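Hi V.,

You were right to ask for the full record rather than a summary. Here it is.
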Amino acid sequence: MSKTFAVIGDPINHSLSPNIHSAAFRELDLDCAYIGYRIPKGELEEGIQGLKKIKISGFNITIPHKIEMMKYVDKMDESCSLIGAINTVTNNDGVLKGYNTDMDGFLEPFKKKELKIKDSKILLLGAGGAARAIVAGFAKEKASSITIANRTIENANNLSEFAKKIGLKANAIKIEQVSDSAKDYDIIVNATSVGLKNESSPISLEGIREKTIVYDIVYMPMNTDFIKKAKDNKATIIFGYEMLLGQATRAFEIWHGVEAPYNVMKKALLGGF
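Predicted structure:
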């Protein structure tokens, strides 16, 4: 019997998920379809009912529904309660179970490239949507400390409290205060949306060491100004698409119980640029 999967959110037309998953279905000869399904803000409850009616097998959730989705699942795994958001759901005969693949998706490129997180000093730019999952990931991998730099200090403080609660040494600063201290960190992550519209890098990467890992979670464009500056300084780069791919392969494995065809999914994703 054929199965249908979806990504829900608003806007949805630019989503690369249908390409990525469809390529995987073709590769593994699975009788499945994956669609983009626009559900505007405020219409999530009706949208979920509609998905249940067509017996959707599973779906991904993107902006603006990731937090509100927690109200509509019957069960969730611990990553959801820790991160406070859901981005992947399975539908088992009308019973919805929520997962959050943000943390695993974020960590996946480190594992693939065998890059060490343990005992490293982290600088995280931004305290929005994905930041909690990123902090949780660094805590899980036993980083030594994290500095959270954000435009509004209040959000950075909240995230820093969360980090401490889950066992990671943390402090909060305003993004302007980073100035030329980037060189003091082992890993620098941009989790702000700066770069989406080709703006210049949110901080100066002047003088960072060659061994520094620089990770931008913005995936369109692939080479943000932040990434370009990191390359000029010969840093080790992790692109935003690598996190997106990590999230997609994890969702695929949750739904199908088999290993995701990583390279096929990667090719489909990069073909979408």
